[in-house]
Amino acid sequence: MDISSIQIVPAPPDRVWAALNDPQLLKACITGCEAIERIADNEYKVAMSVKIGPVNAKFAGTIVLVDLKPPQSYTLHFEGQGGMAGHAKGVAQVVLSPDGEATKLAYTASAQIGGKLAQIGSRLVDGAANKMAADFFAALARELKEHPHAPAVPDASVREPPASSASG
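The structure corresponding to this sequence follows.
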């Protein structure tokens, strides 16, 4: 399965880069994502539920980011196991470039699937993958519009300020 697209994201490249590297924001934007946990530099453990046609599956897998060129591009390697439903493995290239006050995000992804997922047909799988991508980019755009002044660099140590700061 191969998919590619170009999306215009309503934020500058540094903000889009930060969003694409923020596990909590990604979890909120990926349909069916139950967890994204950093396990090493540029490596994540992922758990998600997927429904494609008649197949419902819970996948557990890993994502590894390589060839990072912040805030312009990276390559993402992924693989996951969904028990009886099957497995998936692939690679995606992501390239960001300025587009006025927004960012042009171009991606290409190639995946191999096996098990029941491979048996249900490429039309259903491709349709589900394209819908997941469209839903992700809509959610990402919404998050970036709703939080335009969030830090450009994700930092787990950043906390909400106290409700009142009395100094005296």
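Strands lie at 2-9, 33-40, 43-52, 55-69, 73-81, 87-99, 102-114.
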